Amino acid sequence: MRHEHIETNSGLMILLILAVISIGGLVEIVPLFYINETVEKVEGVRPNTPLEVRGRDLYLREGCYLCHSQQIRPFRDEWLRYGHYSLAAESQYDHPFQWGSKRTGPDLARLGGKYSDQWHVQHLKAPRSVVPQSIMPNYPWLLTTKLDYSDVADRMRALRATGVPYSVTQAEYEANVKKFGQTVADQLDISQAEANLLKEARDKNFDGIAGQVTEMEALVAYLQSLGTMVNFSQYNDDEFVKFR
Amino acid sequence: MSDPTQNAQQKPGEVQTTGHAWDGDLQEYNNPLPRWWLWCFYGTMVFGVLYWIYFPSWPVGGSWLKGVGTVDYTITDKKTHQAKEQEYRWNTRSLLLSDLNEAANNEKRKTMLAQVRAASFDQIVKDPKMMEFVRSVGKGLFGDNCAACHGSGGQGVVGMYPNLTDNDWLWGGATGQIHETLVQGRKGFMPAFGAVLKPEQLDDVAEYVLTLSNEAKPSEASARGKEIFHGPVGGCYYCHGADAKGVPSQGAANLTDKIWAIADVPTQKTLQDKKAVVKTFVTKGVNNTRIMPAWKGRLNDDDIKLLAVYVHQLGGAQ
Asked: Of the ranges A64-73, B216-225, B284-293, which one carries the lowest mean pLDDT score?
């Protein structure tokens, strides 16, 4: 094929241009589908509970990801400020993942357990009442809006379609018992979703309002779960070096 | 368009043209790329290939080219507590460990940390050099771990998180006491008197409590309240002390000063409102809302010690 032939056939030229410029993308994306050595083998990572699922949806609805990332990079300053760098394994049930790339606020990947539920409620309602220099907006409606959990089972079914092991059949449930243990497997049972959600809300009462399930309840439950699933004290600091 | 005979007419010394002519006489010079530029260009290609060899690069099958570059680091094995030296292939994670080693081996930091570790609280407080170190390291630690609740300056939030810059300490403000608070955490508790005392008795107690800090003048009501406070009915003195100056071992507040940790008295305008906020807390008590988390296990011993001294020097150091 002569050069002149290509230059004078715009249709052919378009096709060839597309082929050339897609090489870069293909080289970066295609290997992700079959490289499996980069996902760390760790214990403890589980899919979200029904309450956390709803909390995560609110995290998306309120656009938290626009200002907060959920990915601690392996740099010294981030290690000191936020803790252990994020693992690929920690986002394996996150669809879509919330790594983000914009940090107007701090990274939230290891937020869970850092502050009390009470602090989160106060901070989401009126951030400047606890952090005067904060520029985060107020989210007072979370505390006054009742959580709509009527469709939580559907939401889990949708996640299941993307590969999250929420169980429908008895066989799936048993596989979960084997993989995550009884307590977690019960939480992943879609038929019990609503009951589980109400039970977690009642037992832990994240929003501090007894007998009521507010949107605050779900969001704080989700925030308190972030980055807490892997117990890093059982791994040496160089345990995850071999996965990169 | 083009005239192939044009090139043949070129005279020696003239720059070659591309051999095309547009609109009859419009031609384009065909200058060669400058030699230096060309070599730089080839250089980037060589650099690219070396980069692929040294650093992790191309995906291959289910794995990837791991590169020949290496990084040295030292870690402490968590089971045997032995230092382990390791040479590993270059990647951002091994590089991080080597970076952390470099920070830990920073001579100045290392010597200062050893000094602080060996010194008693009194020695640290009296030593300007160690205090300088405490202030510079403590600021970062405080900002990351404490400031979310206690505020970046330690000013706290009335009703929720204690102010650390004043002279009032629920659990004691000596370095040792602050250290204990940090290590094991604290859980503020006051029983609810709503079911024990009658509403008018609650009013009396609230009035008496306000006289202690000169917010209210002594009256008949406060005299009755005093009896409840110091008597077996209320028994407030068990925790707040006979002088009402608080008992640090109980985390009980000093009621005789103008500093209020929970009931927001100072911002209330009328005596009635002040009484109301005090009464609310006497009625409901304090339970499960005033929790200082334990930091042992979350921070290492050195960091906790540095923080204890840092908080102590924030203000009101006793």
From this structure: B284-293
Q: Which residue of B has its CA nearest to A33?
A: B62
Which one of A122, A236, A240 has the shortest CB-CB distance to B93? A240
Residue A118: which of B97, B147, B289 has the nearest Cβ? B289
Of A50, A73, A38, nearest to A221 by C-alpha is: A50
Nearest to A236 among B77, B93, B291 (CB): B77
* All domains of chain B in start order, with CATH: 144-312 (1.10.760.10)
List the Cα angle B77/B79/B84 in 5-degree steps.
Answer: 20
pLDDT of residue B31: 86
Residues of chain A above pLDDT 90, percent: 79
Helix (H, G, I), strand (E, B) or coil at B224: helix
Q: Does A122 touch chain B (CB under 8 A)?
A: yes
| CB within 8 Å of B98: residues ≥ 6 apart | B71, B72, B73
Rounded to a whole number, what is the distance in Å from the CA of B77 to chain A's nearest CA?
6
Q: How far apart are CA B3 and CA B17, in angstroms?
A: 11
Whether this prediction's pTM lies above 0.90 is answered by: no
Residue among B84, B91, B160 minimizing CB distance to A122: B160
pLDDT tens per residue across span A113-172: 888 898 999 999 999 988 888 999 999 999 999 999 999 999 999 999 999 999 999 999
Nearest CA in chain A to B147: A131
Angle at CA of residue A156, ends A155 and A162, nearest 5°: 100
Nearest residue to A243 via CA among A29, A10, A38, A17: A38
In chain B, the largest separation of any two C-alpha atoms, in whole Å, equals 123
- What DSSP state is assigned to residue A225? H
Task: Test B62 with A81 for CB contact under 8 angstroms.
Answer: no
Cα of B229 to nearest chain A Cα, Å: 31
Q: What is the pLDDT averaged over residues B221-226?
A: 92
Cβ neighbours of residue A15 under 8 Å, at least 6 residues apart? none
Q: Is a pLDDT exceeding 50 seen at residue B5?
A: no
User: In 3D, which of B293, B250, B210, B91 has the Cα closest to residue A38?
Assistant: B91
From chain B residues 261-290, the ones with a CB under 8 A of any chain A CB are: 289
Q: How confident is the model at residue B59 (pLDDT cuts 50, 70, 90)?
A: confident
